[in-house]
Specification:
The chain is mainly α. The chain has helices at residues 29-39, 45-52, 59-63, 75-79, 83-87, 92-97, 104-110, 123-126, 193-210, 222-235, 240-247, 251-259, 268-277, 282-285, 288-291, 302-318, 325-332, 336-339, 343-362, 365-384, 391-398, 402-405, 409-420, 422-451, 457-464, 475-482, 489-515, 522-529, 533-536, 540-548, 552-581, 587-594, 605-647, 653-659, 664-667, 671-678, 681-684, and strands spanning 145-146, 151-152. The chain has a two-stranded antiparallel sheet.
């Protein structure tokens, strides 16, 4: 008896829709749900939600249609379509390729600004004999039109002009929910040739990103994708600023794409614009041989490395790509630094780099002509400004480096002769500077002579604002200044004549002030002469005349004498007060009473002498008191010795000191006492 096939109740025919067409390639989930409802005669998509047991067309799905739902419920069982196939009707695979499908909110943020708020469609595609459907690629705003029919995509009804919802409640395909008009009969504008190319390229990129990847392929992280963009940008020899300018964005966007920043994540639209700026299809970024370049095992011989490099060069030439060391190293799977370790390979790379530079210059004759005009204009402008024409100044005005400009033969022919004229330019500049300093020195000399001041090299350099050492670099200026050297005979003669003149003028001013009955002071004399006291004191005879006049120093001396007299009076009163109270007249005590620190005694000679007198008297008094005490202690010791002898007791130093009420420390202060005690040192031992 044959074994009967096991029955699975979950696959029962009554648990499937009567009609369950399968999704078309790249059909959107919203389109598939509409076709299912329309084929089975459902009046609303809510009935399909009830059958599937999941809110596929509920309020949340209406807001974000075609995004992967949290759960497909029983839709796979109702349609007999596996869940993996249903994912192809959403943006799931696109999010997987960019590593943004882990969380629904992450995918929505990634596609923000790339999706329209209403349905977009191609009328010609809906009229095809095969089953019509809304394509998932139409959901992207970056797609200008249908590449197959060369028509622009419509975003409203061609009959009533109303916007079409992405997911209508009534399951009717190609029918306007507002007026009921047939969307297949709407007229669409034709695309231009350039728009057709953009549409074809964008369609290929979107179909690649939305389709299921090959088995074994995994999604990339943002950092891995960014590395591919960095490699492409470097192949185009673009800076980050230039790339940002091309894509019409900011540098932060380029950095977010290339480095996969988790703080500023780039959107899908920014990835598309960056790929367009680099003139590279987005699917090229995900090419397996680019994402994971084949790294061969360690090549043991230089011949093997050279073979790899030659194959890479032929491949780049076949693809019409720039043959540069960076692109060669990327295809070989080695860094340019590693390749340069092999001499023959390094020669090939240098030859490719040189040939690339020659091609750039050879095929850009128009640019060379522009640079020639810019260099000639820069030279004329420098000459007009009266500045030396140097290579550095010309390159700065053109805005390019010297190494880059000399790559163009005609520009190089203009710049090279400029270097030969550098010596002449320096000579002319030094001559002009020397002549300018000579004129300035002559003007300073005339000014000093008009002021009546001595003309010396130091004074000339001071007024000119230059150092004496700088004179050695200007021979003509040095020869002029040396004529006024201070040690020369002419200079000494001029000094004597000037001194005699100033002596006569000073004497006449003093006589004039005295005749008018005014106080003759140094300040008034200098003011009448119109010269400073510092300048007049350079001459010894004039300085002697000024010393005879009353000046600030005389007034200061008088003020000091007055203060000294007052302090002496205070001192005498302090001495009487100390004598009345019986306190010792110590210099420190007196200084505190008259509020005078000892540091200022040098300013008052008489006061200092009085202090010294008081100090001497105090010292004599102390000496007399010491001698009196010494005689008294000596008498006590003699009396103690007599007493010990009468008593018949031993005479020792300790016994004598005790009887005389004298300590050893105090006894050492008096020589006479020490002499007496020394006689009894043996008895103490």
């Amino acid at each position: 008896m044959e074994e009967r096939e096991r029955f699975d109740p979950e696959c029962a025919v009554w648990k499937r829709l009567p009609l369950h067409p399968q999704p078309r390639p790249l059909e959107s989930l919203s389109s598939y749900l509409i076709r299912l409802g329309e084929a089975n005669g459902l009046s609303s998509l809510s009935e399909l939600d009830a059958l599937a047991g999941a809110p596929l067309s509920g309020p949340g799905a209406l807001l974000v249609p075609d995004f992967p739902p949290p759960s497909y419920g029983g839709l796979a069982q109702l349609t007999g379509c596996p869940e993996a196939r249903l994912k192809e009707t959403t943006f799931w695979h696109l999010g997987q390729r960019f590593g943004r499908a882990r969380h629904p909110l992450t995918l929505r943020r990634f596609l923000a600004g790339s999706l329209p708020s209403c349905l977009r469609y191609c009328p010609a595609c809906l009229t095809e004999p095969s089953t019509p459907a809304y394509t998932l690629t139409w959901r992207f705003l970056s797609l200008p039109g249908c590449a197959a029919h060369g028509q622009a995509l419509l975003d409203s009804c061609g009959h009533c002009g109303s916007a079409l919802p992405l997911l209508a409640r009534a399951p009717r395909l190609a029918c306007c929910p507002a007026c009921g008009g047939d969307m297949r009969t709407c007229a669409a504008a034709r695309l231009s040739a350039e728009a057709k190319q953009i549409a074809a390229r964008r369609t290929r990129d979107l179909e690649f990103l939305l389709s299921c990847p090959t088995p074994g392929a995994t999604g990339l992280e943002a950092v891995d994708i960014g590395k591919q963009f960095v490699a492409l940008r470097q192949q185009r020899r673009l800076t980050i600023t230039e790339a940002a300018h091309r894509m019409g964005g900011e540098e932060q966007v380029v950095l977010a794409i290339e480095y996969g920043s988790r703080f500023k994540q780039a959107t899908f639209g920014e990835y598309l614009r960056y790929a367009d700026a680099l003139d590279c299809p987005l699917q090229e970024i995900f090419r397996q041989d680019r994402v994971h370049p084949p790294r061969s095992l360690t090549l043991e011989t230089e011949e093997q490395v050279l073979t790899q490099v030659e194959e890479a060069i032929r491949r780049l030439q076949a693809e019409s790509s720039p043959v540069v060391p960076g692109a060669i190293g990327e295809l070989v799977g080695r860094s340019v630094r590693d390749l340069h370790k092999y001499p023959r390979v390094s020669t090939v790379l240098n030859r490719c780099k040189l040939e690339r530079g020659r091609q750039t210059v050879r095929f850009d004759r128009q640019r060379e002509e522009e640079l020639v005009q810019l260099v000639e204009q820069a030279i004329k402008q420098v000459e007009f400004l009266g500045k030396p024409v140097t290579q550095l100044r010309v390159c700065a005005m053109v805005g390019m480096t010297y190494q880059w400009l000399i790559q163009y033969p005609r520009v190089k022919a203009i710049l090279l002769p400029i270097a030969s004229t550098r010596t002449e330019n320096v000579t002319r500049r030094l001559h002009r500077e020397d002549q300018k300093l000579l004129e300035q020195a002559e003007q300073v000399i005339r000014q000093l002579e008009s002021w009546g001041e001595p003309v010396s090299p130091g004074r000339i350099c001071e007024l000119m604002g230059i150092s004496r050492e700088r004179l050695s670099t200007h021979p003509r200026l040095k020869a002029l200044v040396d004529q006024y050297h201070e040690n020369g005979p002419e200079s000494r003669q001029r000094t004597r004549e000037r001194e005699a003149e100033l002596v006569k003028r000073t004497e006449s001013v003093i006589v004039h002030l005295a005749s008018r009955g005014e106080l003759v002071t140094q300040r008034r004399v200098c003011k009448s002469l119109g010269l400073s006291q510092r300048y007049l004191e350079r001459y010894s005879r004039v300085k002697a005349l000024l010393a005879q006049c009353k000046g600030k120093r005389t007034r200061s001396r008088l003020r000091t004498e007055q203060q000294e007299r007052e302090l002496l009076e205070h001192m005498e009163r302090a001495l009487k007060e100390l004598e009345a109270t019986g306190k010792p007249a110590l210099p420190r005590t007196i200084g505190m009473m008259i509020q005078l620190p000892f540091q200022r005694l040098d300013d008052y000679p008489r006061l200092k002498a009085r202090f010294q007198q008081i100090l001497d008297e105090y010292q004599r008094s102390q000496e007399w008191q010491r001698q009196t005490r010494e005689e008294e202690f000596a008498a006590r010791l003699q009396q103690a010795i007599s007493t010990r002898e009468e008593q018949g007791k031993a005479i020792t130093q300790s016994a004598l000191l005790k009887m005389a009420c004298l300590s050893k420390t105090e006894a050492r202060k008096y020589p006479c006492v020490q002499t007496i005690l020394a006689q009894y040192a043996t008895n103490s031992g």
